[in-house]
Amino acid sequence: MQRASGIAGRARTNTSTRTRTVTTMSQATQRERTVTLEDAGPAEKGTAPDEVIIALSPGFGEISTETLSGVSHAEILRETMAGIEEEGASMRVVRVYDTVDLGRMGLVSSNLSGSGISIAIQSRGTTLIHQEDLLQLDNLELFPQGPLLVPETFRAIGRNAARYAKGESPAPVTVENDPMTRPKFQAMAAIWHIKETQCLDEERGQIELDIDFS
């Protein structure tokens, strides 16, 4: 398995079988970013001791190109990868096709990671950092209010995940808390959940992705 080398580069592992291009206007930069996600074959257990797996939900870049609050999928993926890269850790990006449950995504992907650390990101923006020896409902850090997460938050999440992978104990990422977020986005989140379940494919399981930004 090759490592993801550079946020503007590609991490090739196998012959690609499927391509998805996400083009969107990021709230943070107000300019267009594009990321191409190419299926590169079944994801295998990593061996790099500093590896972080970024696990994307089945509908990431499929049912929408933005989170619930309108932050570009391309931007949050770029920022997450940049945060990991800043810490000098290695990474792979995987799409988890067989579940839309965030906790399950974290558990499955952490078991694929060479360090046992993974970041799981749903299409609506909800995110967590998981460690392989934790139960499915446990995690290192949970970010349940996806609409409040901005690109800078995802870069910080990437940095912290890399630090965990290196055996460090970083301070948790600080995120704003807004009690009105849930009622404001609850109906939309329910619709997105239904759409995302339509992207499930248990036979495909977990697929490694090649990433290309332009």
Number of strands: 8
Q: Element order, helices and strands?
A: EEEHEHEEEHHE
Strand order in the sheet with the most strands: 1-2-8-4-3-5-6-7
Q: Mind telling me the C-alpha Rg?
A: 15 Å
Class computed from helices, strands and strand pairing:
alpha+beta
Mean pLDDT: 85
Oligomer: single chain
Terminus-to-terminus distance: 23 Å
Largest sheet entry: 8 strands, mixed
Shape: globular
List the uncertain runs: 1-5, 7-30
Quote the beta fraction: 15-25%
Q: Work out the helix count.
A: 4
What is the helix fraction of residues, given as a range? Answer: 25-40%
Task: Record the SSE blueprint.
Elements: E1 19-25, E2 32-42, E3 51-56, H1 73-86, E4 90-96, H2 102-110, E5 117-121, E6 127-131, E7 141-143, H3 151-165, H4 181-197, E8 206-213
Helix pairs in contact: 1-3
